[in-house]
Amino acid sequence: MQSVEDTIGVAGLRFFGKMSASISHEIKNVLAIINENAGLLKDYTLMVEKGLELNPHQVGAKADKITAQVARADAIIKKMNLFAHSIDQDRQKTDLNATLKLMIALAERLAAIKSIKLELSAVSESVSITTAPFILENLIWLCLEFALDQMEEESVLKLGCAKTEKGALIRFEQPGQFSGELAAGFPDDAAASLASALQADLLADTESGELVITLPDEMQ
Amino acid sequence: MNARVLIVDDEKEFLEAMGERISARGMDVSTSMSAREALEKIEQESFDAIIMDFQMPGMDGIEALKAIKAKKPELQIILLTGHASVKKGVEAMKEGALDYIEKPADMDEITQKIKEAHDNKMIVIDKQNQKKVDEVLEKFGLQGFSS
Question: What is the pTM of this model?
Answer without folding.
Answer: 0.86
